[in-house]
Each structure stands twice: as C-alpha cells, then as structure tokens.
Amino acid sequence: xxxxAWNRRQGQxxxxxxxxxxxxxxxxxxxISINYFRQENTYNIFFNIHRKKRFQRSIPIANYSNIGFxxxxxxxxxxxxxxxxxxxxxxxxKEQCEELYRExx
Length: 105
Fold this sequence. Notes:
With 105 residues, this protein is an alpha+beta fold. It is 42% helix and 33% strand. The chain has a four-stranded mixed β-sheet with strand order 3-2-1-4, with helices on one face.
C-alpha cells in the first residue's frame, strides 16, 4: 500500500511541476519526454515547450534511479490522469514501448 501512495505522490509532484510551467499560449507545442538510461538504470522525465519561430525548451522535471518499470508505469498513469500531453519514450525496448502505449492512455 505504501508503494501505491508513493507512486501517486510522485505523479502528483510531476503534475504540479508541469502546472507551473504550462501556459496555454497560441502556436505552442507541449509534450512530455521519458528517457531511459540503461547504464545507470535511470528514468528522466522532461517537459518540452516549442513556440513557433523560437527555440525548443526541454525542462527536467523528474529523475528516478533504480525504480522498476511497473513503478514508472504507475507514476505516468497518475500524470496522465491530470494531463493529456503527448508522451514520447526514448531508449525503451519495443516491448516496453508497446506496454507504455497500452497502459498509459
């Protein structure tokens, strides 16, 4: 039960950080990038902002070391409950990407 509460809290913290950065402005694209670094067994989550005719910004909002894939799924589900941004996954296996697309809707 404590793990579920921790996952929920982490998802809420990420969503709170996004709410601070998100400004619903004209001609601006927003998305969330989730990167996996195999060598360090680390997941990094970034909030990306790209305004038309401006440079793209990628802002780190979370970094998780040594957590399981299922824990990451639960955290991302909590974020998805609040925001419907596009999620882009980098350096995951094909099977992991399929599961992420299926579970995190």
